[in-house]
Amino acid sequence: MLEVLMIITTVALVGGYFYILMKRRKHQDNPHGWKGYVTPTVFLLAPVLALASYLFEFGGMVTWFILGFAFLSGAYFTKYLPQPEESHS
């Protein structure tokens, strides 16, 4: 039962984040190309990898190393994220 709840929660959160990301990025130009998508991709794939490692009992040094490398690369590529537009409301 816990595994089903974890899968549903992960799918809902990742799907919602992906929807919001695409909605916000639709009208923004990305002058840096693929580099602007590294950080959002890391934040989309990290919970999926963590859930998969839990479900398949593949926890340990390899999973921690992959997640650590992913978060470090995501943090590095934050400088290539597009700047938010100013809202005049």
TrEMBL record:
Keywords: Membrane, Transmembrane, Transmembrane helix. The chain crosses the membrane at residues 6-22, 34-56, 62-81. It comes from the Bacteria. This is Amino acid permease. The lineage of its organism: Bacteria, Bacillati, Bacillota, Bacilli, Bacillales.
